[in-house]
Amino acid sequence: MAESKTKMAEIREWIVEHKLRTVGCLWLSGISGSIAYNWSKPGMKTSVRIIHARLHAQALTLAALAGAAAVEYYDHKTGATDRYPKFLKPDNLTKD
To answer: What single DSSP character describes residue 14?
Structure first.
């Protein structure tokens, strides 16, 4: 009988499979939230608001990339995932 996965395990598996999409969505939500927050502050020029939003989103993206690298390192160290992506077959990777 197969064990059912918890919701958290399913989310983690999706994030591991779609790392770049996850980081891109995090960047988009970060820049959107930062623009919304900066727009609520009066007395700032529009260019300064956009620059601050970009910097906040960039910091959030770097943190997400560091987290993705840590997960990837942990998975390879524990052997939790295959070494190669599913679309690459290890038989085809030998050099001739």
So the answer is: H
Q: Are 53 and 35 in contact (CB under 8 A)?
A: yes
What are the CA-CA distances from residue 38 to residues 22, 32, 59, 61, 70 (Å)? 24, 10, 16, 18, 31
Q: Tell me the one-letter amino acid at 8.
A: M
The one-letter code for the residue type at 88 is L
Determine the structural domain holding residue 30 and report its residue range: 1-42
CB 60 within 8 A of CB 27: yes
Nearest one of 4, 27, 24, 20 to 72, comparing CA atoms: 20
For residue 77, being part of any structural domain is answered with: yes
Query: pLDDT tens, 70-93?
Result: 888 887 788 766 666 666 666 655
- Give the tens place of pLDDT for each residue, 21-67: 888 888 899 889 988 988 888 888 989 988 988 898 889 889 988 98
State how many domains the chain has.
Answer: 2
End-to-end CA distance of the chain: 44
